[in-house]
Write a structure and sequence with these properties.
CATH class of the largest domain in chain A: Alpha Beta
Largest sheet of chain A: 8 strands, mixed
CATH superfamily of the largest domain in chain A: D-amino Acid Aminotransferase, subunit A, domain 2
Helix content of chain A: 25-40%
Largest interface: A-B, 68 and 67 residues
Oligomer: homodimer
Strand content of chain A: 25-35%
Structural class of chain A: alpha+beta
Number of strands of chain A: 15
Chain lengths: 293, 293
């Protein structure tokens, strides 16, 4: 069966696109009080599918859930409903599995979901926009308003938590589109580059593959970046974590956004200045990220 | 008919508590990409209800919606569905009307909500916690991580927008409860008091009623604070907007949290230091906020 989207409700089953599964007082909707994670699903010609790095995404999902006050998920229950969706998902190509958790209904004593968290996922055909981005994007910097040390010892700021409260990330992308760019590189109030709204930054500077440190900056712990750095190190590359200015990125030898969904996205320009394209390394990064199929 | 919660879907009608009205790919759920507003509903002995300051809340709701890229609402359509809910809501007492908007389904070409925003509300009995808070709360300061000028010229940070992405506000309240306090007063990274997660701050300092300025700080434009200041000025009080430190609040002659739902909440202590209680002024603030019934 071919479909553009399937919706899973853990423990309840799989539903068609647009099925209403969330109440109006769900804390995920009313407050963004929850979290998510997302990864790529690859479906082969015969109709069988592989979910990429599901355990690594479950690990990060659990860490996010604990960050918003919840308990780790029952992975067997999640796998069972995901498998049920995959068995109905047979069109060859790429899709996105987005797993979502919220702290349940605000008025916990009311309704069917009382005292239970909300656990749902969507399985959606990879968008044309995500595929087009792999050729490269024009990027602008936007100030995220917080210093590169703001998140140290401030767990209530939810640094590193992939929370459902992504409105600023979406508003920043909207601002980029308004300015004719394709994506955003957030900067800290003290002038360092952080991450993109839905991707990590990797740059090649003086022969070293560098990314933003997590500690203090509140950025997400990128699964794709970690996988790429591990593979790069195994092939003799040097890697590092470094607070960089936009000028350092522009003066470097190439920069990329990495994400589990979009894969490896070369940054074509930053604030209007063209960046060096390093197509050899782009191909290597894709191989290390396992995005070559 | 008595009920603890009713759910309204604009243009579709009124449903019982827990009714599922939101899809799993609704941008309000997946990203917090939407906004809300909330006000008090007072139901009299005969069963008729008054929604407090609905137009002022519609005004701020529209400003929030524009802030997240949407168009102002059709107030007649909203009023019609709200009236339908009020006609079923006859138990005397207080309730909360929470109006919510999201930018619709993420996968806009799929499902029933295609190309439409999501417009829903809940009408919920006032919680015991909100009523208890009116006797006063113990408050801790928590750093919001952003300077008091961070929001100037940075609309993508959604300053003043009452967005659905309130996860940090909820996490901060969770941190307060963990520390044995009842509420939070956010501070800026440069050391000024801002607002509470769901309330504005008003303090009496040197005989002047003061609140945090909106410009640059990103705080919400409080309807209750504006109403209170207008009434106070009419009775000869002096009011001002001022960036204050926590020490200035502690050394002042009293401080309160104001909100359309909780009304006037005296701050009993700030970071463990008792604040002066000014019960005469508390009663005046309640009258000015029209919370004396």
């Amino acid at each position: 069966m071919s479909a553009q989207q399937l919706v899973g409700v853990i423990g309840r089953g799989v539903f068609p696109a647009g099925h209403l599964v969330i109440s109006a007082d769900d804390l995920g909707f009313t407050r963004g009080d929850g979290c998510f994670d997302a990864t790529r699903v690859v479906t082969r010609a015969g109709g069988s599918s592989t979910v990429e790095n599901l355990d690594a995404h479950f690990d990060r999902f659990d860490a996010s859930i604990v960050g918003v006050g919840g308990d780790p998920i029952n992975r067997d229950a999640w796998r069972e409903t995901i498998d049920q969706a995959l068995s109905q998902w047979t069109s060859p190509g790429e899709a996105v599995l987005k797993i979502m958790y919220s702290n349940g209904q605000e008025t916990q004593t009311l309704g069917a979901g009382a005292d239970r968290p909300t656990e749902v996922f969507t399985l959606t055909q990879m968008s044309a926009g995500n595929i087009a981005d792999r050729a490269g994007v024009e990027v602008i910097t936007l100030n995220r308003g917080m210093s590169s040390t703001a998140f140290a010892d401030a767990p209530w700021l939810l640094g590193g938590v992939k929370s459902l409260a992504y409105a600023v990330n979406i508003a920043a992308k909207r601002e980029a589109h308004r300015r004719g760019a394709g994506d955003v590189l957030f900067t800290s109030s003290d002038g360092y580059v952080l991450e993109a709204p839905t991707s990590a930054l990797v740059a090649l500077i003086d022969g070293v593959l560098v990314t933003t440190p997590i500690e203090g900056t509140g950025i997400l712990n990128s699964i794709t970046q970690r996988m790429v750095f591990a593979a790069a190190e195994a092939e003799g590359y040097t890697t590092d974590q470094l607070l960089m200015t936009p000028a350092q990125v522009i003066d470097g030898d190439g920069a990329w956004f990495l994400s589990s969904v979009r894969g490896v996205v070369p940054i074509l320009s930053l604030d209007g200045t063209a960046l060096p394209l390093h197509s050899d390394l782009t191909e290597r990064l894709r191989r290390w990220a396992r995005f070559t199929d």
